[in-house]
Amino acid sequence: MFHYAFKVKDIASTRKFYIDILGCEEGRSTENWIDFDFFGNQLSAHINANITAPDFCGKVDDISVPMPHFGCILSVEKFKEVQSNLQNANINFIIEPQLRYKGKTGEQWTMFVLDFSENAIEFKAFSNPADVFKT
Q1: I want to staple 43 with a disulfide (CB 3.0 to 4.6 A). Which of 37, 38, 72, 123 is the partner?
Q2: Per-residue pLDDT tens for 72-102?
Q3: Could you list the residue range(s) of the whole structural domain that residue 83 is in?
C-alpha cells in the first residue's frame, strides 16, 4: 500500500472524478484537502493554484508517456470495470486502453487519463500478476 499527495484545482471536481467516476471511497477531508481509498492505496489531494501540466517526455515502446504520472495495478476484471466507468463518463484517454507485450513476460493492459486537475493517471493489469517485476 502506498500514500501519494498531489495537487488539485478544487475539491468538488476532485470528488466527482475519484468518487463518482472511479468509485473510490472518501476518507478524511477539510476544505483544503481530501483523502481517497485509491484501490487500496491512500491518495491525498491538496488544493493548489500552481498545477503544472504533464510533459509527454517519457518513451515506452515509442509511445510518449506523460511525466509525472501515478497509477495502480488492478486485476484484469477491475481494469475493464474502470475502463467502462471512464468511457461511460466520456473521459478522454490520453493513451487508449491497449494490451502491451502480448504473449511475452509482462503482458499487460494499460491506459492513461487525466483527472479534472490535469494529473496523469495510468491504470495497469497484468495478465499474469506474478510478472509485475519479472524482466
Answers
A1: 38
A2: 999 999 999 999 999 999 999 999 999 999 9
A3: 55-131
